[in-house]
Structure to design on (281 residues):
């Protein structure tokens, strides 16, 4: 029998929590959270009672609990279930929605506690990975906003409208953001920083940049850093030093993204330029 295990993460400055767990024997007593709880079942069957009925979440299905909504939980079959879940405070959800729609509005309510929606499952996995990994602030902010808006538009009772993007204005916003990302390439900028610098909402900045550049600000920032790292590696700078100067958290962070973008490790790339591979400072 597989042992139960849990991995837990909590933000130091925002109402955000994340957990990755596998339960075979553990059963949740009936309880509720003071936050929105969005989860995705990865394996097995996750059974629970909520809103007067019994529900089961199979692999790929998404859980959506409103704040203060009682529910329990247990394995629906052997050999247990594995799931990821993110708890997002109501004020943070309200902030994301107000930023995206320019109207505060009421907090959303999710009428169904479990839905089969692959796109939402993918969004939740991306957010969970960003929160618990070494993602940049921009990556995390974008994943958070995308997840909240996707959940609301796909499953909430009253989805918010999507404001249009005007061509010339989007280009102006994108041009300013692009300039900031170039000037402050190594800084751990967040969506709030870009919004404040441009004088627009986080949502407007993100959508304008995506429409004009074809990628999110975080992807553009990462690409800038990778291109700088390539220049440094080509010049013979040790890999750890190149990672730091390019704006990566460490050499492993550089290696992971370098390989995903270019198909080879920084060490292989360095060797191809006739340099001896250095794996540390």
């Amino acid at each position: 029998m597989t042992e139960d295990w849990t991995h837990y993460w909590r933000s130091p400055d925002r109402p955000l929590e994340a957990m990755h767990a596998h339960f075979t024997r553990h059963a949740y007593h009936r309880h509720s959270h003071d936050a929105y709880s969005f989860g995705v079942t990865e394996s097995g069957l996750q059974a629970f009672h909520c809103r007067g009925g019994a529900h089961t979440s199979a692999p790929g299905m998404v859980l959506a609990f409103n704040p203060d909504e009682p529910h329990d939980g247990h394995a629906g079959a052997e050999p247990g279930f594995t799931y990821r879940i993110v708890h997002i405070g109501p004020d943070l959800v309200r902030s994301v929605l107000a930023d995206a729609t320019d109207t505060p509005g009421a907090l959303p309510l999710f009428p169904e506690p479990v839905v089969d929606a692959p796109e939402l499952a993918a969004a939740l996995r991306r957010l969970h990975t960003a929160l618990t990994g070494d993602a940049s602030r921009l990556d995390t902010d974008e994943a958070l906003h995308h997840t909240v808006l996707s959940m609301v538009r796909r499953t909430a009772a009253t989805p918010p409208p999507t404001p249009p993007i005007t061509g010339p204005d989007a280009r102006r916003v994108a041009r300013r953001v692009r300039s900031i990302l170039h000037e402050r390439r190594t800084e751990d900028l967040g969506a709030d920083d870009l919004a404040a610098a441009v004088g627009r909402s986080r949502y407007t900045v993100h959508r304008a940049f995506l429409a004009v550049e074809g990628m999110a600000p975080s992807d553009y920032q990462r690409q800038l850093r990778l291109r700088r790292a390539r220049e440094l590696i080509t010049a013979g700078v040790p890999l750890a030093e190149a990672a730091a100067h390019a704006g990566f958290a460490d050499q492993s962070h550089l290696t992971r993204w370098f390989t995903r973008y270019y198909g080879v490790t920084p060490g292989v790339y360095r060797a191809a330029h006739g340099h001896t591979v250095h794996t540390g400072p």
Remarks:
- The chain has three domains: 5-155, 167-214, 220-272.
- Confidence is low (pLDDT under 50) at residues 277-281.
- The beta strands are 5-10, 16-23, 28-31, 36-43, 46-50, 53-57, 62-65, 71-75, 81-88, 114-115.
- The longest helix spans residues 137-155.
